[in-house]
Sequence to fold (401 residues):
Amino acid sequence: MTVVHIAAVVLSALLTTPAVAVASPTSAASAPYVPCPAVKSPVPPPAAPSPPPVGPADLAVGGETLATPGLAIPAGAPMAPSVTATSWVVADLDSGAVLGGCGPHEHRTPASVQKMLLAAALMPHLDPAQVVEVTRADLQDLDPASSVMGVVEGGRYSIESLWLGLLLKSGNDAANVLARAGGGTAGRQGGVQAMNDEARRLGANQTHAATPSGLDGPGQYTSAYDLALIARATYARADFRRYIATRVAEIPAKPGTPGFAITHDNTLLDHYPGTLGGKTGFTDLARQTYVGVAERNGRRLAVTLLGAETAPLGSLGEAAALLDWGFALPTDASVGRLVTPDEKKHDRPIAEVRGERHGQAGAGPSFSLATVLGLGAAVVLAFLLLAATWRQRATRRAANP
Fold:
């Protein structure tokens, strides 16, 4: 076989060797879709704007099983109860295990459960003994028909009283005052920014506050999973647990400000055994929303639900049914977990190699680095072999003129 033939064989072998493909990054695969067990409301809900889509990386926060708009429950678990809520999560506050959910990461409108994010953001930074005077601006943009604590312009109230008014009566007036008090020089908007900063810190990536109270605002969304993260953060505080479990609070009188009593509007406190507290919400856009926590046999479960209807059970009845389902599961049951603020949220995807078109029809051949180096080595080898042959022939001709 001539040197040329040898070089040709080497080149042919290298060209026909399969190239080692450089794998392109792929997003986390979504879990198989299983429809959520649902009850059709007797009265169709009003039309709502379509929420923005959730990115693949955010869908998989807490585990790939949660990356679904449908149902996620442990294998072999009894079927979750049928509810009108369009998304929900049941999670263990202590272990961080997510026991189940329906569209856990889907964008939904929060209504007054957004007030829990206000508490998570500002409760660590406001002195409960501080006294704040209510201004006209705190009250002027509130719908008179919305839920209020009952503060008056010029009235002076302690931060602790305002937290009680926020959590017991879902006071939108208290939310505005607290956001202003905690917002620094930026006022109320500074308080809203603190809420969004806290959502990012917690890993609540589907949550964006536009108002401190949860009254509907442009681009205001949350998710059932995010609300579980927020609940875990708030229930870690002794002062929040004390406020949220209070049945009746007396707001003391101050000079020029009459005192009054407020009663908790979360009826599960007296009707569902083990309830540690909860927060309700409602707007025409959000429908009924709820975040609550109950304890049984030393196990604390949080339930979060969004988009529920008044009939047949309402948000409180649906929360009770979901809690019963969660408490019936084994303590090691899980479909995911609640992330913690100190862990890395996601890895940044590696950029695809320039020129690659994975899966694209008509794409040109792709060669690995090893193939390219092999081709170069073959060319050099062929050249050296040819040079050696020419030298041998020249030597023979010189010896035999």
